[in-house]
Amino acid sequence: MGKKEEYLKRLSDGVVEMEEDDVAEACQEYLDAGYPAFDGIMEGLVDGMNRASQLYEEEEYFVTDVLLCSDAMYTGLDILRPHLPDEDGETKKKGVIGVVEGDTHDIGKNLVKIMLETAGFEMTDLGRDVPLQKFVDTAEEKNADMICMSTLMTTTMGGMETVIHMLEEAGLREQVKVLIGGGPISQKYADKIGADGYSANAVEAVKLAKRLLNIV
Questions:
Q1: Which of 26, 91, 148, 160 could bond 10 through an S-S bridge, CB–CB 3.0 to 4.6 Å?
Q2: How far is 61 from 59, CA to CA, in rounded Å?
Q3: Numbered ranges of CATH 3.40.50.280 in the chain
Q4: pTM score, two decimals?
């Protein structure tokens, strides 16, 4: 394992183990060694957060643990983010993200937002339990390129399809890509309701968004 991989593993482990001080130290050493901030965020900090989310899903971790992991991740982000190459504000793609009405699970959504922002997207976060019309209104107001919706409940999945119909009625469907995700969601469901894409996790969400919006 090369030096860079060792740092990335240390960053990832630091997040999973909720070790803020170690994450901060590792981030600084990683930068001092001349490695790119973007990789440190994606393959280090975010990798750790994905592992923590997995442990939460497997009921090994509680919500309080996940929050401590995210504190460690944010500590690292604060150190690495200023070292990301500057993107021209004009070229930033804009997105609206939120958890659909009736659902308050937002750990996954928060992760996706952080990853998309890190990848250079300008995101408007509507939070959780978002009224469906708000997705459409905000997308129009912000002139958004995409809407990202998530839910962990089968009872609220239908709201995603409703938003797509609302976009059609508002004449916005052509200009806004719709990305969906969450526990009960699948590619099959995305195809069924006419969404542009589905991603199983935060890392895939970034790849998908870039692909749909033709960002190299």
A1: 26
A2: 5
A3: 94-213
A4: 0.77
- 194 Rama class: left (phi>0) / alpha (psi -120 to 50) / beta: left
Q: Find all residues with CB under 8 Å of 6, minimum gap 6, and list them.
A: none
Can you read off the two tokens belonging to residue 215? 């960002």
| Whether pLDDT at 35 is above 60 | yes
Residue 122 DSSP SS3: strand
Neighbouring CB atoms inside 10 A of 143's CB total 10
Burial of 204 (0-12, 13-18, 19+ CB in 10 A): middle
**CA–CA separation, 132 vs 155, rounded Å?**
14
Query: Which residues have a Cβ under 8 Å from the Cβ of 116 and sit 6 or more positions away?
Result: 95, 97, 123, 148, 205, 206, 209
The three-state secondary structure class of 48 is helix
Q: How far apart are CA 156 and CA 139, in angstroms?
A: 20
Per-residue pLDDT at 131 exceeds 90:
yes
| CA distance linking residue 176 with residue 185, whole number of Å | 20
Q: Which helix (H) or strand (E) holds 19?
A: none
Which CATH superfamily groups domain 94-213? Cobalamin-binding domain (3.40.50.280)
